[in-house]
User: Which sequence fits this backbone?
């Protein structure tokens, strides 16, 4: 798709001028007043900022202890500071921030490596090296993003930096050539794609940032042509991993690094080729990729989550708004505008965002997005089934039901095939935990020793004490669904998601929303004739504390103040507290979670949630 267009392109490359540089004072002075004042205020917080030194032992800590946050806090903190200072200088253009900007540029250029220690290898899924080889730069997500930050800085403030010393720009371009341009064209990293290796968000995220680095810099037409050809090939490899339905198998959080990076990649390609790629905004797959984030939205800050995705996946904002605009999706534009306003100052400034270009986009789009939000047009969410991932979503005025069919071979996979998520009145009721802070173990052969990855910590059964296993072979089969005005339901066979030695012959799960009334989840199972053990223990995870109610038969529980769960039969084994102590989980959950464990005493478990 993309390679075909660039192969046929015969025109001259245009300068990449998506937004005004700092010398265009009229454009910067015309920006949203609140964005400008808040941007200056944030920049002032970093005046005199002491850019931290990153030592060799900082880099080695990941291999020694498994901790990756100590290094990342230093690395990301430097980039947050530089981005804030650059935009403050662009707004004020007084020179007040320039010394700290120059310090930031040189501090980052003097780092031995731009990649994270967790990514310090040359071949996919091989052990990380303890220290970086400065003669062979590794191009990971954050090396590419660092290149984009420095190139955007160069584009925005070239004249001001040159007035101090031309050596500043020369240093930026030298580092970009050594760490980005040369390895990109002469080395193969797995995320670039070759038609054989599986792709994920890395492919398009890295490609977007390489393009920013190249086209914001003073580079030759020959280099640009070579980069464009390779980049278009990578985009095609990335898109080949998506179904036509556009579902992101890494979830809503990773959409920001996948679908939205596809959008910016397309914007760059169009800008430098006189809109040669613009026709692709009407491609059905790309329109579906754009709309995924709207369809995954539940209410307020919450999104349906699975795999490593958090239920609090970040507010939609400018990039979603612009993607909706280009794909002519007005529902997505109104949703993004409303969510942007709800995000307050964080959405306005993106202070925790490394990527300077995203912050720049904010500044030049705030006025337009505010006008759209002021229209106060209701957001239209639709029921949908994504066959490529097996994601089923339905809602009525009070209840929201999502079910994850598919398999356990997703990118960032958790063993969660068949699990469901339920919200009521926009609040979490039956939940998917998400993932703890990344460590060395997260992406290692020991991944599924981590509790949040295991099916027993999803809304799923243990069968004869065994949990689901990982891999594409462990999947839901015979999936059928109905999306109707009064009833929406999905059913699936889950026996293949479990190891064969659990003895199960069939485990049928049916989940339905009877609109305006209740949700019913029915599990019906049978064991193979030779099975002597026939134990099924259902795990259910709730956000609010369950309280046992009296029941004539079966089980009745009140889930916080939201509603009730009744189970027609079965024995309540335990209500356990799952302490939420991890920093990453605390960004999603304000208190501990709870796990209900129910032992089946018949061949059917029927749950009613109202």
Assistant:
């Amino acid at each position: 798709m993309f390679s075909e267009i660039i192969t046929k392109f015969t025109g001259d490359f245009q300068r990449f001028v998506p937004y005004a540089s700092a010398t265009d004072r009229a454009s910067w002075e015309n920006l949203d007043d609140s964005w400008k004042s808040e941007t200056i205020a944030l920049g002032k917080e970093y005046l005199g900022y002491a850019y931290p030194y990153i030592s060799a032992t900082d880099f080695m800590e990941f291999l020694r202890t498994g901790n990756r946050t100590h290094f990342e806090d230093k690395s990301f903190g430097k980039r947050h500071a530089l981005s804030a200072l650059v935009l403050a200088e662009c707004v004020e253009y007084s020179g007040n921030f320039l010394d700290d900007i120059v310090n930031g540029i040189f501090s980052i250029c003097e780092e031995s490596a731009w990649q994270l220690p967790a990514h310090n290898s040359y071949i996919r899924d091989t052990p990380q090296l303890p220290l970086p080889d400065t003669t062979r730069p590794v191009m990971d997500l954050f090396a590419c993003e660092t290149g984009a930050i420095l190139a955007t800085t160069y584009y925005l403030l070239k004249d001001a930096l040159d007035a101090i010393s031309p050596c500043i720009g020369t240093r930026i371009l030298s580092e970009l050539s050594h760490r980005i341009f040369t390895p990109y064209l002469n080395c193969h990293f797995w995320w670039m794609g070759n038609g054989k290796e599986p792709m994920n968000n890395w492919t398009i995220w890295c490609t977007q940032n390489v393009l920013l680095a190249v086209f914001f810099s003073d580079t030759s037409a020959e280099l640009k042509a070579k980069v464009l050809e390779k980049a278009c090939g990578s985009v095609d490899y990335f898109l080949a991993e998506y179904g036509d339905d556009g579902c992101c198998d890494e979830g809503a959080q990773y959409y920001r690094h996948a679908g939205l990076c596809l959008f910016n990649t397309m914007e760059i390609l169009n800008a430098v080729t006189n809109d040669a790629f613009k026709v692709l905004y009407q491609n059905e797959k790309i329109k579906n990729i754009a709309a995924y984030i709207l369809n995954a939205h539940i209410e307020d800050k919450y999104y349906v989550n699975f795999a490593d995705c958090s239920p609090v996946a970040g507010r939609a904002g400018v990039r979603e708004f612009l993607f909706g605009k280009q794909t002519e999706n007005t529902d997505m534009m109104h949703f993004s505008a409303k969510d942007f306003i709800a995000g307050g100052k964080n959405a306005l400034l993106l202070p925790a965002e490394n990527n300077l270009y995203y912050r720049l986009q904010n500044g030049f789009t705030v006025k337009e997005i505010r006008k759209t939000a002021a229209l106060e047009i209701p957001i239209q969410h639709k029921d949908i089934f994504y066959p490529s991932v097996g994601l089923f979503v339905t809602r009525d005025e009070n209840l929201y039901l999502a079910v994850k069919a598919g398999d356990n071979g997703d990118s960032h996979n958790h063993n969660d095939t068949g699990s469901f998520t339920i919200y009521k009145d926009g609040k979490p009721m039956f939940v998917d935990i998400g993932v703890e802070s990344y460590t060395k173990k997260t992406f290692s052969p020991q991944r599924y020793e981590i509790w949040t990855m295991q099916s027993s910590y999803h809304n799923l059964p243990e069968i004869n004490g065994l949990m689901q296993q990982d891999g594409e072979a462990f999947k839901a089969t015979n999936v059928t669904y109905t999306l109707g005005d009064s009833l929406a339901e999905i059913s699936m066979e889950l026996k293949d998601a479990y190891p064969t030695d659990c003895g199960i012959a069939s485990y049928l799960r049916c989940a339905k929303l009877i609109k305006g009334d209740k949700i019913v989840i029915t599990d019906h199972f049978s064991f193979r004739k030779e099975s002597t053990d026939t134990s099924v223990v259902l795990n259910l995870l709730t956000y609010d504390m369950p309280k046992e109610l009296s029941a004539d038969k079966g089980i009745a529980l009140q889930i916080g103040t939201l509603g009730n769960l009744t189970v027609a039969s079965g024995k309540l084994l335990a209500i356990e507290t799952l302490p939420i102590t991890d920093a990453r989980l605390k960004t999603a959950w304000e208190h501990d979670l709870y796990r209900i464990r129910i032992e089946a005493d018949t061949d059917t478990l029927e749950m009613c949630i109202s």
Q: What stands out?
A: The chain has a mean pLDDT of 97. The CA atoms of residues 337 and 541 lie 32 Å apart. Residues 2-374 form a domain with the Glycosyltransferase fold (CATH 1.50.10.100). The two ends are 47 Å apart (CA to CA).
